[in-house]
């Protein structure tokens, strides 16, 4: 079984394991890494955190869990030039630095092992966490509570003052959505660092996981353009055209397709 197949198999289990699926994403980029190597690491973290948690009901332990992780050094990366290491889970476990999503996946796995109720929230620009039924969200980078006013401020910092907070920003993230978001993050980071082949692996994974968007197909088409693969670029542009509802975008895609060679016939 390839790392990609193992990743998808983790998400198809009952219950699924986003933590192990994310480790297989790491294995796809680092052939020397095996997911089993991280299991002892997470078990050691569980023991450390369990010993330090206050004697409270499980439903009140999500924020203390995140604060303990922060005390142990798990913090958001502050690189001025972002690198893939800040998203790859095995590197985050090793360095104790990473993107909010990676820190959240680690927190969710620890919460599962400690039987603490916690869920992911697919908030734009900064992945968040929540205790089911709570009136606030939690920042995986330290455990700060975020109420609607804080969420609006976070959106404004990320996207500008015109971005409005919507109910869709606060919905629970499925395991599949988390791995797809991780793959999009890695696609972007590898491309930023001019590793187009690694970025293509992530772009392929996004599409293979299902429900790929117009933007996903355009991102992969861009990679194929950089790698001078016009037939593959055409495939994604045609799919983007089928998915797009924007008439101006459709016009531009049609124009771009007209400059590519026609599909080759295969026999």
Summarize it.
This protein has helices spanning about 5-10, 20-30, 35-50, 60-70, 90-95, 100-115, 150-160, 175-190, 195-210, 215-225, 230-245, 245-260, and strands at about 75, 95-100, 120, 130, 135-140, 145.
Task: Characterize the overall form.
Answer: globular
| Tally of distinct domains | 2
In terms of quaternary structure, what is this?
A: single chain
Number of strands: 6
CATH architectural grouping of the largest domain:
Roll
C-alpha termini separation = 29 Å
CATH fold annotation of the largest domain? C8orf32 fold
Beta percentage is: 5-15%
Low-confidence stretches: none
Tell me, rounded to a whole number, the average pLDDT. Answer: 94
Q: Report the sheet with the most strands, covering strand number, pairing sense and barrel closure.
A: 2 strands, parallel
Determine the number of helices (DSSP H or I, runs of at least 4 residues).
12
Task: Give the strand order of the largest sheet, numbering strands 1, 2, ... along the chain.
Answer: 1-2
The helix/strand order is HHHHEHEHEEEEHHHHHH
- Helical amount among residues, as a percent range? 55-70%
Radius of gyration over alpha carbons?
Answer: 20 Å
Structural class: mainly alpha
What is the CATH top level name of the largest domain?
Answer: Alpha Beta
Describe this structure in words.
It is a single chain. With 267 residues, the chain is mostly helical. The chain folds into 2 domains: 3-170, C8orf32 fold (Roll), CATH 3.10.620; 175-258, Serine Threonine Protein Phosphatase 5, Tetratricopeptide repeat (Alpha Horseshoe), CATH 1.25.40. 57% of the residues lie in helices and 5% in strands. The protein has a two-stranded parallel sheet with strand order 1-2. Strand 5 (137-138) and strand 6 form a beta hairpin. Helix 1 packs antiparallel against helix 2, helix 3 packs across helix 6 and helix 9 (196-208) runs antiparallel to helix 10. The longest helix has 18 residues, at 175-192.
